[in-house]
Predict the structure.
Amino acid sequence: LRLTDGLHYFLVTLVTDGDMETSGVTNWTATTATLSKETAAANVMFGAQSMRVLFNGGVPRAQSATFNVVPSSTLFVSAWVRVAVGTAKLVLWDVTNGEEIDSATSTQRQWMQVNVGNGAVTIPSTCKQVAVRLEGVGATDDAYWDDVCVLTHLRRTYDLSSWLIHGGQIQDVCYLPQGQSGPET
């Protein structure tokens, strides 16, 4: 339970623990990487924590839970990342066919929003399930990830953040335009 005072923003996404606010990393699967939640202010873009993905060889990645999609639909896929070492790569992964749909990379040492497909990605006609992968390009890459967002224009309802208890906590719904650090007024 988290009790808060004042106005706070939270992410709406198809990715379980995309806002990185759930305790622990059990909603993400690591492959040749060490995952941890971080709370130091420099390592958090939004909320109380981010997820550090420290790569340690092979094809390093953290993968979200799988979720269903409509074939040939369009998704918006983005995340905030701060790279400590190397290159970070945000990937929309086609679980059905076992291949990358599209990706975006960053080498920025300050927080940067990365968008797969320049903001819009078309799902292949044979794809029914996808996941998000937070990857490194090199075997020793180190990056902090926050607000991993996947939205579709076909969906009207989304699960709320894990720390929201009831609808009375929601004052308003707004959107964060691509590349902005505050809500649209």
